[in-house]
């Protein structure tokens, strides 16, 4: 994705202030999904610059104590996943 970022900067006359679109999608249509994906796309090139995947799903047998390989990397409401993902990217 670094190559795509460099391409977007080059398309913008070597100016690092590039225009992007940030969008989030969920596994389900309603805001109760356990998984979400946030993408940052260059408006000039239409290519994806960065992605963040968030999951509220926990695979640990003891839900109170998370293991290192736990898939849950987000705590909060499903609706706030997009904001959290965007802040992690930037």
Question: Beta-strand percentage?
Answer: 25-35%
Largest sheet, spatial ordering of strands: 1-2-3
Structural class: alpha+beta
Helix content: 10-25%
Q: Radius of gyration in whole Å, from Cα?
A: 16 Å
Summed up, the helix count is: 2
Report the strand count.
3
Series of secondary-structure elements, N-terminal to C-terminal: HEEEH
The low-pLDDT segments are none
* Main sheet specs: 3 strands, antiparallel
Through-space gap between termini: 14 Å
Average pLDDT score: 81
The best one-word shape is elongated
Organism: Nephila pilipes (Giant wood spider)
Pfam families: Mutator
Protein name: Mutator-like transposase domain-containing protein
Overview of the structural elements:
By secondary structure, the protein is an alpha+beta fold. The chain contains two helices and three strands; from the N terminus they run αβββα. The chain has a three-stranded antiparallel beta sheet. A hairpin with an 8-residue loop joins strand 1 (20-26) and strand 2. The chain is elongated. It comes from Nephila pilipes. This is Mutator-like transposase domain-containing protein. Residues 7-90 form the Mutator-like transposase domain. Pfam families: Mutator. InterPro entries: Mutator_transp_dom (IPR049012).
